[in-house]
Input
Amino acid sequence: MIDIDGLGHVNDAYGRDSGDRMLAAVAAVVRRQIGAADRAFRLDEDELCVLAPDQDAADVLPLAKHLCELVDRSQSAEGPRVAIAAGIASCPEHGESADDLLAAAEQATWSAKAAGRGVAIGAG
Output
């Protein structure tokens, strides 16, 4: 799960259309970086989810770290910026149902945000 932090600041400074373009730009970065078998979806206003079949949390960790760094590096130093926090959950390690996996990924995302953004792996 990927949480995009800072979209509200973009909306406030430049308008909702700019925030929507920023969200689309982050989603495009994610889509270009994931594997051919992986799928990215928008979950909420500022959340994306990447399904990576047949990969455990440790396999996805380098990609999640790369995405966080790539989004950070791809922005101008001036003006409102966004950052992403990624939470990783894998089956069966963090649950077997979609609800359990989403809950674990959401908890891991909150842990990543609390740690100052970045990436966290869900607790079982």
Notes: The first strand starts at residue 2 and ends at 5. The two ends are 16 Å apart (CA to CA). The mean pLDDT is 90. Strands lie at 2-5, 39-44, 47-51, 83-88, 118-121.
